[in-house]
Amino acid sequence: MTDTHVAPPRKAAAAPQPDEPKSTALARAALLLLRGRTLVVLVVLIIIFSSISSEYLTQSNLILMTKHVAINAILAIGVTFVILTGGIDLSVGSIAGLASMVAGGLLFKGFDMPGGTVFFSVAVVILIGIVVGALVGAVNGVLITRFKVAPFIATLGMLYVARGVAQLHSDGGTYPDLAGTEARGNTGFGFIGVDSILGIPVAVWIMVVVAAAAIIVTTKTPFGKRIFAVGGNERAAVLSGIRVNRIKIAVYVISGACAALAGLLLTSELGAAYPDTATTYELNAIAAAVLGGTALAGGRGTIIGTVMGAFVIGFLSDGLVLVGVSTFWQSVVKGAVIVFAVITEQAQQRLQSNLTKRTA
Fold it and tell me: Where are the beta strands (DSSP E) in the chain?
């Protein structure tokens, strides 16, 4: 009897799946579109409004819209720092109003001291206003880190406190005519909100400087990396030696300072300080950050995206006004934009997760 060598049976080859690469390619294309959704929405808005109104893309209107964008963009940049850590800041509008009233009071009636009334230069007044905003932001940070108050509650409370202090500062009145006088040495406040350099409003140049500084901080410094680490996984950040509480306080200080700067720009543009300055501006700032791709859960977002989101919000608002849409419908549209931003941000997360699993 001879032994016969029997080869083991071969496993049937897996049937080719030509649809899988195609579906992956489509998913990648959809992810790319979601990542660039802010730019796509901005282009669509420009096309729609320019087709409705011939004045939309005129040079004067573009400059005016960009000037309005600058104020919201500065607010949104500060809020982005907070959201990147997984927090939220609802008080930025009220902080802007408080800084406005402090600066307006110093310019209009000066600072009473035992030896008489002192009037500060415009540069000092602006610095004081920003410091006030930073201090309020620091209070937010301490409430959240030391007293363990939820960010939503802490900043919501500060929203009312800061607005109330702004109203108490002038007994609900207005500080008009902030032009100052040569004798007091406090002229020139209108420069930051009214004047232009090379045909571009000073407020826009300030926005560019603030955005550039924020981009450098978030992408090129250890502090920026720690911000993302705290927002991505706070527990892991603690275990890696990051002083989480200090990072959180710092981002609320940045948010408060940016809010104060935005309030000063708005006050300079108006030429007067009102207690209700920047009311509800916090909603536009948060919407700009989220629309720009900043995750509300923290750990992901870019300053460039936030600025693009501010352009979308600003160009949308001014476009609605230009074509005669009522203020009530403007609120409806803005709310829909915020919901749309959150939905697309979550869709991007799910798609990114699915693609990661496919390629793993």
Answer: 111-113, 116-118, 196-197, 200-201
Q: How many CA atoms lie within 13 A of 28 on its CB side?
A: 10
Torsion of CA 335, 339, 342, 343, to 10 degrees: -160
> Reduced to 3 states, what is the DSSP secondary structure of residue 196?
strand
**Dist. CA 231–CA 242, nearest whole Å:** 12
Nearest-CA neighbor of 220 among 148, 303, 139?
Answer: 303
Report yes or no: 120 and 186 within 8 Å, Cβ to Cβ.
Answer: yes
The two tokens of residue 94 are: 């009220």
**Strand (E) or helix (H) holding 214:** helix 202-220
Tokens matching residue 159: 């929203």
pLDDT, tens only, 13-71: 544 455 556 777 787 787 777 777 888 889 999 999 999 999 999 999 999 999 999 99
Which tens digits make up the pLDDT trace of 152-183? 999 999 999 999 999 999 999 999 989 999 99
SS3 116: strand
Task: Give the CB-side neighbour count of residue 300, counting CA atoms within 13 A.
Answer: 12
Q: How far apart are CA 124 and CA 122, in angstroms?
A: 5
Domain annotation for the chain: domains and CATH numbers: 55-359 (1.10.3470)
DSSP string, 128-186: HHHHHHHHHHHHHHHHHHTS---HHHHHHHHHHHHHHHHHHHTTT--B------TTTT-
Phi, psi of 113 (to 5 degrees): -130, 165
Q: Quick one: tokens of 291?
A: 């629309």
The strand pairing partners of 200, in sequence order, are 197
CB 257 within 8 A of CB 78: yes
Instruction: Report residue 163 CA to chain centroid gap.
Output: 20
The model's pTM? 0.90
Contact of 80 with 244, CB cutoff 8 Å? no
Cα angle value 69/71/72 (rounded, 5°)? 65
